[in-house]
Amino acid sequence: MTTSTSTPRSSKPKVLRVGKIDFAQEKWAQLAQVAEIVDCDSPNREQFFEDLKTKYSDVVSIARTFYSVEQTGRFDAELVSHFPDSVRSVSHNGAGYDQVDVEPLTARGIQLSNVTVPVEAPTADTAVYLLLSTLRNFQIGHDLAVKGQWPTAKCGGAALGHLPESQTVGILGMGGIGRAIRDRLKPFGFKKIIYYNRKQLTPELEAGADYVSYDELISQSDIICISIPLNANTRHSINKEVISKMKDGVILVNTARGAVINESELLQALKDGKIGAFGSDVFEHEPQVPQELLDLPNVVSLPHMGTHAVEAMKNMEEFVVDNILQFLTTGKVKTIVPEQYSMDIALEPLVKT
């Protein structure tokens, strides 16, 4: 499927694929019927810049994976400045797109899409696992059993946990993932589910969750599930000042991005007992995580496994192709990112259906 430089120029629109594809080969083969697919073989960022001037000089769409950042670096203003004029869309394989700077793309009229629906269920499942593990002290009990303490103490000496019936859950960010978390938590019988969003949802989308202000969510929640994107406004938005307004012993669950939380200030709050427990799939400087944080008994940690499942990965990879195909056939990607909702897009389709 890779096109060499000696291949005659194709009349099909050219799509550059950056990063490895594991499961969606059939879907990409379908796209290859209407587009020329070129795999990025640039070994590093500097060579990528050069190749964008030569063998990638006429690509119209770029697909990138989360881990391709190791090959090209972030899609920041510097990298975007090397894009040929032909580039009209970038499709990122992930819900979070903090590896891509939206502003320089928007300035050049380049659409950015992310993956939405396919990540909602697996990420929400992960949040439920982390929430129950921290609420019931399951991870602490497991660790104590491994250490051989069960024969000498009930439940290995783990402290009593709590049942959902006594707990108010606050969901910070009620997009697709936040709503999927809510739907999975409702059958457990929590005392109340509240949420904060940039704007209140319709009653149909709220589905029984109560809209509150940011300060009310922070101060009223026994458990806070973080489900907001990482950007300049949200980086370190959970910090010492915000934590001080939370209930003593609050549980934090993070399946968004690690840098939403100031990790050093989180660590101190966990050691002080202000935060009762922390369940997280993401960390500020992952895969490097302070060992002191990982070693705390009231921390349940995962190495970014939210979508680490065969079906999830396949669905995500295929969704990227759907974004590219819709762009080629309609002039607009399927799931343009919120920052570009107001962008004036009037592109002619590149492929006739």
TrEMBL record:
MF term (GO), any: NAD binding
InterPro entries recorded: D-isomer_2-hydroxyacid_DH, D-isomer_2_OHA_DH_cat_dom, D-isomer_DH_CS, D-isomer_DH_CS1, D-isomer_DH_NAD-bd, NAD(P)-bd_dom_sf
GO biological process per UniProt: glyoxylate catabolic process
Keyword Metal-binding included in the entry's annotation: no
Residues of the D-isomer specific 2-hydroxyacid dehydrogenase NAD-binding domain: 129-306
Assigned EC number: 1.1.1.215
Gene3D superfamilies according to UniProt: NAD(P)-binding Rossmann-like Domain
Root EC class: oxidoreductase
Domain D-isomer specific 2-hydroxyacid dehydrogenase catalytic: start-end pairs: 36-337
Family, as annotated: Belongs to the D-isomer specific 2-hydroxyacid dehydrogenase family.
Protein name: Alpha-ketoisocaproate reductase or hydroxyisocaproate dehydrogenase
Recorded name of the encoding gene: MDH97
